[in-house]
Write a structure and sequence with these properties.
This protein has about 575 residues and is α/β, with parallel strands linked by helices. The chain has 25 helices and 14 strands. Strand 2, helix 8 and strand 3 (about 195) form a beta-alpha-beta unit. The longest helix is centred in the middle third of the chain and has 33 residues, at about 260-290.
Length: about 575
């Protein structure tokens, strides 16, 4: 955007002249320049189509970005939209950082941003479409803040599932940004999602092993996994079903576990064997993809690729990492808590009896299932349950991180970002020792199992902040609040969230009327415009499959009585 297409091409041609003849770098610079020529031709082709349709402003903008640097907000948004389409990029980074400088205070700027939002939404990249606002380490902060306020208003006006508007906030930031976010919530808008820099920047430093100035460039993308803006790669190319791993250990008739620690060790060993294979898979995918495709348009804008003369995946990008999605963390921890208490401490059932109950999906064993359900559950600020969740969390996160170096990755980190795969995997997973029946959904992300957080909002928030956020690359915290709570008790909600964000890294809200989801389930024709947070993404409720709808309905709704 600073130099436009011609400025970027000029830089490439200078690099080509200084590169050795017949070198891979020289060839890369030539092909990158050709890619920019194609983009220029695309702009000119659309210019002619726009003129034929009488779209003078669009035609003039396309003419300008074909021949020089963008001069206006329209030019900048037009160029970025086209670049995203040709490159295949699904997320938009720190948009206020690169867009704020083009604001002039014109009345039509809100309409331009709304139009850009529509363009993102029309791409249909449901699990992506992230736009980041705010945060430390930005440029031209005053201009960026003006754009952030405009962007939040655009999402309030244009209510749809994309873009996934995200606000990074911190002490000392312009308070109008966070005020605008809460104003959107009070109006029933699910955007922006909130990320606190005081928690996230040190966490990214530690998890990725980076200096502070690099960690300040973290951005959530997709469903919430962290990368560094135009510096790192970390797409999740593997998933692991932790309750299924625990079940395979429990249901192995050939093994007995005299102590709880024996059983937990067997679970750890099975998980570690799977994670080791998934880390190798991540590295192999990157290597093969890099051999097959240079990803020219992404290579052009990723830091270090041009300087090094290397394509994105074969030595160009500054940090090439990976992430592993984990599912059922909470169910696994709650199951282990129940097993330790029921089998090993209180001896209310034997391991053989538990095996039979799980194999038979609790048929004829409702009394025993209810006893498992009544065992302490994560989400209620109970040390016994929460400490087990932390133990499961620390094991999978630390072992996964240790697989980076052996597989040639800058990082390999867990992401607890559940979209609705917790529901899909639940359909394929047998009964679990937390009392969950076969086929039922798993808990979503780092949240309690639906309906098991029965001790109130404060206890729920206290549990959420206990897992260490310095050892993974992102976790989703879904919170379901009533409109009444935000509308009539806004100050109380803010006080609660201020306390939560002393340790909490992230929050995303479903804001609903009491009974609204139940009515939408029964009468979908009345609720075509109802947008809900599923996990790390949003959707129109009526477009979701029935199982996912029911899982969202089952989550605890905190209303005015919660305060």
């Amino acid at each position: 955007l600073r130099g436009g297409i011609p400025g970027l091409k000029e830089r490439l041609l200078e690099k080509r002249e200084n590169a050795p003849e017949s070198s891979e770098a020289r060839t890369l610079y030539e092909k990158l320049a050709e890619a920019l020529d194609l983009l220029t031709a695309l702009c000119l082709r659309y210019r002619e189509q726009a003129r034929a349709l009488g779209l003078t402003d669009m035609a003039d903008s396309l003419d300008r970005i074909a021949s020089g640097a963008p001069e206006s907000l329209r030019d900048a948004l037009q160029l970025v939209h086209l670049y995203a389409l040709v490159s295949g990029s699904l997320n938009y980074g720190r948009m206020d950082d690169w867009c704020g400088r083009f604001l002039k205070g014109d009345p039509g700027e809100l309409d331009l941003v709304v139009a850009f939002w529509k363009g993102i939404n029309q791409r249909g990249c449901t699990w992506d479409g992230r736009v980041i606002l705010g945060g430390r380490g930005g440029e031209e902060e005053e201009a960026a803040d003006r754009f952030a306020l405009l962007a939040m208003e655009a999402s309030r006006v244009y209510r749809d599932i994309l873009p996934q508007l995200t606000l990074r906030f911190y002490d000392g930031q312009n308070p109008a940004l966070l005020e605008k976010a809460y104003s959107n919530y009070a109006d029933g808008c699910v955007y922006p999602m909130l990320y606190r820099d005081e928690i996230n920047v040190p966490a990214v430093q530690d998890a990725f092993g980076l200096p502070e100035e690099e960690a300040e460039q973290f951005v959530p993308f997709g469903c919430g996994e962290y990368i560094l803006d135009h510096r790192s790669l970390g797409s999740p190319n593997g998933i692991i079903n932790l309750p299924e791993a625990l079940n395979r250990v429990i249901l192995d008739d050939s093994r007995e576990y005299p102590t709880f620690e024996d059983l937990f060790t067997a679970y750890r060993q099975l998980v570690e064997s799977q994670v080791s294979a998934l880390a190798k898979h991540q590295s192999l995918e990157d290597r093969i993809a890099g051999q097959e495709c240079p990803y020219l348009y992404l290579t052009l804008l990723y830091d270090d690729c041009i300087a090094r003369g290397r394509p994105l995946l074969t030595g160009g990008a500054r940090y090439r990492g990976g992430t592993l999605e984990t599912y059922g963390n909470t169910n696994t921890a709650d199951s282990l808590t129940a097993i330790r208490r029921m089998v090993y401490e209180d001896k209310r059932m034997t391991l053989s009896e538990l095996r039979r109950l799980l194999r038979d999906n609790f048929a004829g064993g409702e009394v025993q299932r209810q006893a498992l359900v009544r065992c302490p559950k994560y989400g209620n600020d109970l040390d016994e349950a929460d400490e087990m969740l932390v133990r499961v969390h620390e094991h999978i996160c630390r072992f996964t991180a240790a697989q980076a170096a052996p597989n040639g990755l800058a990082s390999y980190l867990v992401v607890i970002i559940n979209n609705n795969t917790n529901t899909y995997l639940g359909l394929l997973t047998g009964a679990s020792a937390d009392g969950r029946r076969a086929g039922e959904p798993m808990a979503n992300a780092n949240n309690p199992t639906s309906g098991m957080d029965v001790s109130g909002l404060t206890a729920f928030l206290n549990s959420l902040v206990k897992p260490d956020c310095h050892i993974h690359a992102g976790a989703v915290q879904n919170m379901k609040f009533s409109r009444e709570l935000f509308r009539d008790h806004g100050e109380v909600v803010r006080a609660l969230m201020n306390a939560y964000f002393r340790k909490g890294q992230q929050a995303m809200f479903n804001i609903l009327d009491k009974g609204e989801l139940e009515d939408a389930l029964a009468h979908p024709e009345r609720h075509g415009d109802l947008i809900v947070r599923v996990g790390g993404f949003c959707a129109r409720f009526v477009t979701l499959d029935r199982d996912t709808q029911k899982e969202i309905v089952s989550r605890m709704l905190y209303g005015a009585d919660a305060v």
